[in-house]
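Entry type: protein chain
Record version: 2
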Amino acid sequence: MGSGAAMLLLCRAGARAWLRSPGCRGLSALAEEAVKLAEKSEPVASGGPQEPVLRRCELPVVAPRRPVQAWVESLRGYEQERVGLTELHPDVFAAAPRLDILHQVAIWQKNFKRISYAKTKTRAEVRGGGRKPWPQKGSGRARHGSIRSPIWRGGGIAHGPRGPTSYYYMLPMKVRVQGLKVALSVKLAQDDLHVVDSLELPSAEPQYLAELARYRRWGDSVLLVDLEHEDMPPSIVAATSCLKTFNLVPAIGNPEREADGSDGGARGLLIRGRRRGPLGGPEGGA
């Protein structure tokens, strides 16, 4: 027991003596006992204050997350045929629905390429107004120096836009990646993201792809992501080239390439837009 322990014992003894009745032992007797215990304690080595030793770790260890399973479909027929299961990375397809980050990324995508060409002329750029319209005094009218002043009709604009104006700004890479993860996770949770075994179509006619989307109720807009961007199927390229609401993009540098197609042979992602209910009524979607 060191000096710190003796001091603590003295404090406790004083507290007990304070709470006891006057008939009990006083503070002096308890203090003497504390001093005797402090004298019997072993001396502490002069190596500085000793730090407590952490015997074990009490922090919770996060268990590894399980992969998300999704059905693998086929585009070879109108029926929604399921050919197997595939595992998707949980960090990409099971992210927390941070709608605030998704909103930031959506606003950034709208504005970072936006350029406003609106431009107005100042009083120095409009035509006319070189001389004073009337003398300063004697006419009884207000004083003016030019008919192209901003307060005159046909005059210059005082604080108008002076384009071209760029609204470019860059979000941090982590925010953009997290926004993409949230979008993919929300689409998968809403059953608006489908994994297909191949983007090869039995027919290269755009009508087949349009009828397939109408039969399976994919919605008005569809995004097709090809994980094997080296050799895109010619049929899907020819079919999407004539459809304005169907976009075919390669998965180059996107987190959706983390989809593991070893189990079900997944080679593509199909992300659909707004779904339509019976008779053209809205059913949901994003």
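Comment: Residues 14 and 256 are 68 Å apart (CA to CA).
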